[in-house]
Amino acid sequence: MNELLSLSISEIVRGLRQRRFSATEIASAYLEQCEKLKHLNAYIKVCSDAILKEAENMDKLTPGSGDLIGVPLAIKDILVTRGIATTCGSKMLENFIPPYDATVWKRLKDAGALLLGKTNMDEFAMGSSNENSFFGPVLNPWDNNCVSGGSSGGSACAVAARMAPAALGSDTGGSVRQPASFCGIVGFKPTYGRISRYGLIAFASSLDQVGIFTRNIDDCICLYKLIAGYDPYDSTSVDKPVGSVNIIPDARLDGLRIGIPAEYFTPALNNEIKEVVNQALEALSAQGAELVEISLPHTEYAVATYYIISPAEASSNLSRYDGVRYGHRAGSIKSLEELYKKSRSEGFGPEVKRRILIGNYVLSAGYYDAYYRKAQKVRRLIAEDFANAFENKCDIIATPTTPSVAFKIGEKTSDPLQMYLNDIFTVPASLAGLPAISIPCGFSGDNMPVGLQLIANAWDEERLLQTAAVYQRVTEWHRRVPNGL
Ligand code: GLN
């Protein structure tokens, strides 16, 4: 593997400033890796010509002051990029060329980042395995027979397989943390409202958040600081200072109370994962953290709640794809109704149709109270569980990110319920709007990565990232690279 591919973001920036290598060399190294590992299907589009041109232009100038000057980045194809096709993993948007940039991408671009490409994803971010993409599944770089996770599977795979130094994704119920865990990298989602969603194609608006994939915490913090913070273009963006989020080199965790929720360590949890996560907890305790048992009693209702609320919102959000304004438009139609029906039938894949049906069902007269309204009430109870824990017992919560390691391609496609249950540990923090991160914490006997999830109270990203940084400093898991790259 080309050694440029193992550099962190700050090493790339430093090397470019000192002219040890050029932006063109960095971009070319990544493009070669993308070509070599094309079969993993991580990208829907690689912007080869454009990035080389931009890199060449950059090399002609004295390096500017931007924090990401010359750093190539991958962006999930759910974030709009001006003039560059943005498909959302769907036939519906196969030919959609957005007229503007998502705020997060604009901020990275303004800091000097170059667009490597748009990554593969489950259609409209609905899925946990990337098998719902119109563009085909993404293979896991640790074992090509396994899924990369979803819905941001392409971003996770690209970063793990050194096809990008870092990537953006979106997390509605776990779509950044779960694929990060399956691919052995860092995946972070912020507090609801912390990072702008302007230009993030909507799935479930009360849950959707932009998230970050990196190979280490330092890179994650670097991107977080650049994209977090108020955006007047997003009405759910909150105007709060982001804080400094500095990594203190020798920091310990003395005085930090880490809550371990009993409900996440049930017999349903795979034994290997339990063992690996327990070792991670010991490592945190060895750094001075106090481990306290806590209870989040409504955890068992989280999956059911999520799979009522998110389809309800999706059914409303996706009504805009009517074949008239944008997106796929069916041919040879005789009436307006036929245009809607045919365009939507042809444009959406089976999982998206299933969610629209569920959403309309739970919102319909006669079922609204029994399903949607009740789910909203349970969501409040789930959020209160977390609020109680943070008020009375702990500062951070630690759990496994997923109940199992990456499963085989095709293993769960015939059983949507099994697929949905895979989200059991990630959806509660989403429903509560809390910041959470998955960090590499070990491997299964089959050499598949395991993720440790840390969850913090709302707006406490600083403590979350600093805790993760201490764990990273005393462990080596994040340094492992999939075989054969
Ligand atoms: N797997 C979950 C779903 O299918 C979460 C997806 C996401 O976070 N975008 O809805």
In short:
The protein has helices spanning 9-17, 23-36, 48-60, 103-110, 153-160, 177-183, 217-227, 271-286, 302-317, 336-347, 350-363, 368-392, 416-421, 427-432, 461-473; strands at 43-46, 72-76, 114-119, 139-140, 143-147, 166-171, 186-189, 209-214, 257-261, 290-294, 396-400, 436-443, 449-456.
Describe this structure in words.
With 485 residues, this protein is an alpha/beta fold. The chain contains 15 helices and 13 strands. It has one domain: Amidase signature (AS) domain (Amidase signature (AS) enzymes, Alpha-Beta Complex). The protein starts with 8 loop residues before the first helix and ends in a 12-residue tail after the last helix. The mean pLDDT is 97. The structure holds glutamine (GLN). The site of glutamine has 14 residues, from strand 6.
